[in-house]
Amino acid sequence: MTIAPPDPAAVSGHAGRDTSAPAPVPAPAGWRHIARDLADDLATDVAEREQAGKPPHDEVARLRESGLLTLLVPAALGGGGADWRTAYAVVRTVAAADGAIGRLLGNHYFLSSTARFFGGPERAARIERAFADGQWCWGGGIASQEPPLMLTPAAQGHLLDGHQRYDTGVGVADRLVVRAAVPGTGEPVAVLVDPAHPGVLGAGAGDTFGQRLAAGGGVGFDAVPVGADGILGSLSPDDGALSPFAGLSVPTARLVSAQFCLGVAEGLLGEVREHGRVVRTPWQPFSAQAWPGGPPQDPYALTAYGELTVAARAASALADQAVDALVDGLDRGEDLDDEECAEIAVLAGAAEAAASRAAQEITSRALEAIGAPAAFTRHGLDRFWRDTRTHTLREPVAHRLREIGDYFLNGAHPPFHLPA
To answer: What are the distances in angstroms from CA 174 to CA 137, 170, 320?
Structure first.
């Protein structure tokens, strides 16, 4: 389909600011320091906030004030000018302190980049300038398994109707990106929507047992107007419909998933390490010989911590390898070919599978090392398991393993399948 370039005023709702002399932005190490400071701040009351389960308006305000929301926007357009390697490090750091906010931020980074993958550089520049001006928080979802919304032709473009079952961040988003179908052909496209329109209904009504602060839930659309500028680009999985560069959207999203899982796993390991140094383990009965005044020496606990550390570090090493490959592929841009895209997609799928398995193992077994005190509500340690399991239920490892095996044995390229 032919997609006209958007009108800047229609996208932003206001004129763009002058970026002829952009303000200096932090180097990658500076952004990581900002993320650590934010994570430390979130960690101080995360158990209480998670149990309250209120919409994370304050948390999003903290992200906005830190500058992390516009991290990936080029500096010339008013953003942080960082690359995906830095963004992944930020997501992982935040997720270690507050898994739900880490998930919300990772989803925001991916969705705010959809115009780059599917809309072309000019469209992306217009939208990202408006994004930086408005300091938008992005929510929604364009997962392949989500039934598409319907676009109906109207006098000024299209009307959007339908319902999506679950999207991340919809309860606090300034802009939504959703999946819709073009009438007649059924071609799936990514659509940009302002959730302030009265036709956007029920945003944020989630009831999952985990990720309570991710502002997720179902969202409905009743005759919401969409102009040509609101259609970001095609999501068609047909062979040849998308460039290899657009195909990198899939591994980009899968590595958001992997970094979330690793962050939550590492966050829990940090918590149980502090408990394990001062609290007697459930495997060793109390006795005078139970390392009085010295470091813990329970062989069962030490072995368990060793196994979990190996699982985390192995998954982390694979994720780092996949991030390096992805960043190189993104730098190649339209020079990337199909085989290179497939190799990156397989590596990212392997990293996501390894991180998912490691997170599930760690968030279950690490609590066993603490024993009964891990069940106390005041510690809030159950949130690590709940946040992880809520996420991994949406993205089963079995699908990634089948794709990896098919590529290994038959050279089959992974399908274009955007994750939740």
So the answer is: 5, 9, 31
Is a pLDDT exceeding 90 seen at residue 66?
A: yes
Tokens at 174, concatenated = 């300034």
pLDDT for the residue numbered 392: 92
* Mean pLDDT for all residues in the chain: 87
Does pTM surpass 0.85?
A: yes
Pairing of strands 188-193, 217-226: unpaired
Beta carbons within 8 Å of 224's beta carbon, 6+ residues apart: 159, 160, 161, 193, 197, 199, 200
CA separation for the pair 360, 348 (Å, rounded): 18
Query: C-alpha 412: how far from its chain's center?
Result: 27
- 16: pLDDT strictly greater than 80: no
d(CA 104, CA 87): 13
